[in-house]
## 1
Amino acid sequence: MDHDMTCKELVELVTDYLEGTLPAEIRTRMEKHLSGCDGCTNYLEQMRQTIRLTGQVREENLTATQRDDLLRLFRGWKNN
Amino acid sequence: MKAMDTELDEMAFLDLLRQRDEMAFTRLVEQYHASLVRLARLFVGDERLAEELSQETWIAVLQGVDQFEGRSSLKTWIFTILTNKAKTRSRREHRSFVFSDFADEAIESPTVPAERFKDASAGASVHHWAVEPSSWAGIPEEKVLSEESLRLIRQTIEELPDNQRAVITLRDIEECSTQEICNILGISESNLRVLLHRARARVREALEAYLKPEH
């Protein structure tokens, strides 16, 4: 890419950008584009939020049955 | 619950487990059992079977804890036991499950629909959104992080192709490292990032539709 980065190109680089795997030169060009583009700035921020929200979907609570089953396993092992 | 924060904690915790401490075991299953079931579901589809594989994993953990040397983290060790069991099981059931199989989707296709952009005619600006993404900053957190948006995210992930679902589950829900995911799924880092990008883009798209300002 020897031209200025376009919005269409930028959106496909967002994951590499957020994962920190973008080569420095491309990163610089991306940041240059972002500094003048509200649409892409919002897109990047939406991706950050998407990652944050996805991290909230864990369901942690064990059901009583699951807990009982697992404790039975544990006691069986302990008394062996 | 957050992952155990220091290596020291984990060693002390392992000692308790080796002494057959029931509280330590309870804490461990509370932290990881749901994750194991979720991980198993990536390989075997069926909820009951996923539960069974997770239980078998706990048996293997208990039987192996005296020999476990702590060269990997406890989490990686437990996840690896589950993964090996799940892979064996899915092979036995002739589910031809290959995580590196990209045949289901052309990986070069854009993740944002072309109609979101204006035609890139000669001399056009590089800033060419036709429908610009809006900021979510003004939306109340109760709406952004509502039960409904979490349900939407779960549903969107559930409908993704297997390999994308696996990658986003491990990376963004289980918060595994890139290296852990590559080991678990047997894919390269660059494949992982392509799949993760597509998966996240789909979830973002679903959220965008949900969070769109009402007219």
## 2
Amino acid sequence: MSIPVIEARRLSKLFPVKGGFLGRSAGVVRAVDDVSFTIDQGQTLGLVGESGCGKTTTSKLVLGLEEPTGGSIRFEGKDLQELDAAGRRHYRKSVQAVFQDPFASLNPRMRVGAIIAEPLVTNESLPDADVRKRIAQLLELTGLPERAATLFPHEFSGGQRQRIAIARALALSPRLIVLDEPVSALDVSIRAQILNLLRDLQAQLGLSYLFIAHDLAAVAHMSHTIAVMYLGRLVESGEAGALSRAPKHPYTQALFSAALPSHPDERREEIILPGEVPSPLRPPSGCRFHPRCPQAMARCSTEEPQLRPLEGSFVACHLYD
Amino acid sequence: MSPLLEIRNLGVHYITARGARVNRAVDEVSLSLDAGETLGIVGESGSGKTTLALSLLRLLPTAARIVSGEVIFEGRDLLTLSDKEMRKVRGQRIAMILQDPLASLNPLFTIGNQVAEPLRVHEHASRKSAWARARELLRSVKIPAPEARVKEYPHQMSGGMRQRIVGAIGISCEPRLLIADEPTTSLDLTIQAQYLNLLRELQRAHGLALIFITHNLGIVAKMCDRVAVMYAGRMVEAGPVKEIFDAPAHPYTRALLESIPRMGDSRRRLTAIDGQPPDLAALPTGCAFHPRCPDVMERCREEAPPDVTVSPAHFGRCWLAVHAEPSRKA
């Protein structure tokens, strides 16, 4: 087995909440709590869960935009905390991101060529001719016309802007790209273009992806492995096909049963969860899902289930103890 | 029996200040809806689906002009009603749920006040009876502890709860038609499932007709009896949901269905639609979809295709459908 590109071990991120009299601490939000996963080279990890489950915080930890309060992230086998300045620079170059809204993520005052070249200019001292060559290469790779380099972002449609954002992410030849809802702001007829492009680039360049999205069918389509989060905890992870066909954790089951059908004849057994996701400031005791779980038992409210291997995947649920 | 709603040849244009640019936001749209039926109107941004819905309620922005057509609802043409008569239709006979519940609720008024308001206005209910009814309505949309919630403000609710409150306001005067414009796009998946089921329950309980405006074919598959597909302001196909999913007559519909990832066939390459939706101010000649159409023919570039009956309740607007026999399999 080769070394995974990213390995997160027992990762935690706590945010202190200030409030009340004179900014006294009002508690902590465990945005990410004891989460472990690996992403191998050329593979995609799909991260799913509802708002507030910690997906975005996890992606920020991976991008190095937040420091973990516990646990570690290893990049190509090396712990990020132990990297020297040169190592950290290398890491920042190797891990890039593409965000949801290509209207917000591109500077409207910069020409597309400059946008794509910016990471190159700030990170590497290349001669102008090489930068221009690289821009042309990146434009071609992402299916944009060469003359795009001289235009401004407003001259492009949403799908093309997302291609520009992808070209910029590719500029430094990264190992991993964090894709945070990369198609949800795009028109339906454009989404397939971008998903296909991402899969082609992965095959061509051996990229790894951390793919975050609400659309479960898109996640299942793009991912090799899927990890499901609920209130900061990982409740299940496993091979994408197996997990989406036969989810094991009651939350995953409810989540996938709530996914919309792709055909009117498709009738899934629907598990409608009562209530809503509780506040992460006061997560329920024991298993955090127990107040909404249709199969909750007595011990679920007292004892927190640990992530355990089960038939090739990992599940944190007392049902399988 | 005549349908509850019948739209005939509706055209809505957006006109700029000096009349220099005309956008045909809705063009030659005809469709009908029976009582208790659910219709999905699908399309991408700029396809005219929201303009179509707003013109039913005559809530169009000032730049918009209804240039042709009739909207017959319960036997009357809504486009010819006086403003006063129209106000009685809105909220009382036709209600609408918008995408963002926070924008549809007034942050300065209590929930009870806002749910009771249509009852006070339309049914001249007393404050006491309107508030009692408001509590009942909140219970029917499954808001826990409605007695306490009526006194609270929108910011104290979660997104799912707010959307259910908007639903409660929508059904407060027992309308015959509820128009939901992307009602669940701002909701999480499990909350979306709760909400869609709630809408279905309300529909059954009150015999409501529903129009879903959405870009999401999954919602159409789950909720709708019939679907109308819009592209660049025109209705390109309409018919029973199952028939359209099984045998779409228009290449755009077919391409949309094939471009969506499906659970369970992850290795299949998605069929992408080339290009992008056209600018309404500079529509292509002939069929508006022709520059992106995989089956484009010479005729498509010059002449707009007519409405073709594919099967009794299924219409397509494509030259292919004109040439093919009705039972053509896509």
